[in-house]
Amino acid sequence: MSFHLGATIVLTLSVSFFVLLLGLFINYQFRKIVIYEDFYLPHQSPIYNLSISTHLVCNSSSSHSSSNRTMEELNDVWHSMNDEELMWRASMVPQIEKYPFNRIPRVAFLFLTRGRLPLAPLWEMFFKGHEGLFSIYIHTSPDFNYEPPPSSVFYKRRIPSQAVQWGRSTMIDAERRLLANALLDISNERFILLSESCIPFFNFTTIYTYLINSDQSFLGSFDDPRKIGRGRYNKRMYPNITLSDWRKGSQWFEVHRELAVKIVSDVMYYPVFKNYCVPPCYMDEHYLPTLVNKVCPGLTSNRSITWADWSAGGSHPMTFLKKDVTEEFLKSVGSELNCSYNGKMSSICFLFGRKFHPSTLQPLLRIAPKLLGFG
């Protein structure tokens, strides 16, 4: 009798405990499906992230924006999308040309770096006073975690990054990642790729006006018959890419929004390059020039606006040290007389230059107010 009573009590308690657990589980699932998905899913979904959706319909840094979100939220460049989702999201183009708000076009500065920006104080001087006309995006090594102070224009401007190897497809992945992140903000109209060793040759107003008013992008794309040009073509790229399609150009480009969308949308030629353009074929020298030649040759001026000195030969341009930076030197490389701009000859050809060693910072800060016109 005692055994049956005890067994009944244990069974009753077990059933009660199971019912309690079942109720908790049902309640959790109900909250997750009904409440969580209805009200919080937009904040968590990698494709429908609220901060990204807002970038697409309003000017995220302009006082004319229709958004009521805080500046901190609008400036947040971090998201949980993988590269496939990011490229898909960035490839979307509005079908109505007229914007439903006062859109002020901006220039997106895309910094491809390994770590810190050693010339950041010069860039801070360059950007000062021009808020609302530019955006900044930084791709670094994924293990780099330094964050500049909140007062810096580079504060919280690092995008979700991955490891990059020179001469490999990961370099193009980083460039496309920068472009895609910048495209999420509909206010960005022009996109310039820069390294940590780049400097501006003119003040912000001159560069902004030059880029915004240009009717073409600035991306070099030329047929190089030498071994370091056509000699890098792989026959296995045929028929998607033929030798007559093959082009070469500088890695450091500037593109307008239409061309930027075409770059992040490419799913036909990128896999071919990734599989068959490996050292001594360098994807960063051939992929974009060839892609532009294939899909939209009329959208670029076939020249770069970032100057470098290749006179010493080799795989890398000359690096300039502190002793090299003088007013005479900067005057000699800041402009030329034989380049075309909007169909006319222009005295301004290069807006940026590289490669400037960190030791050049102090002479640059001293010269910039007088020669470059900022600070």
Automatic annotation (TrEMBL):
GO MF terms, alphabetically ordered: glycosyltransferase activity
UniProt KW keywords: Glycoprotein, Glycosyltransferase, Membrane, Transferase, Transmembrane, Transmembrane helix
Assigned GO CC terms: membrane
Pfam families attached to this UniProt entry: Branch
Natural source organism: Solanum verrucosum
Protein name, UniProt field: Core-2/I-branching beta-1,6-N-acetylglucosaminyltransferase family protein
Keyword match Transferase: yes
Coiled coil (residue ranges): none
Topology class, membrane: Single-pass type II membrane protein
Transmembrane parts of this sequence: 6-26
Lineage, top ranks: Eukaryota, Viridiplantae, Streptophyta, Embryophyta, Tracheophyta
Subcellular location: Membrane
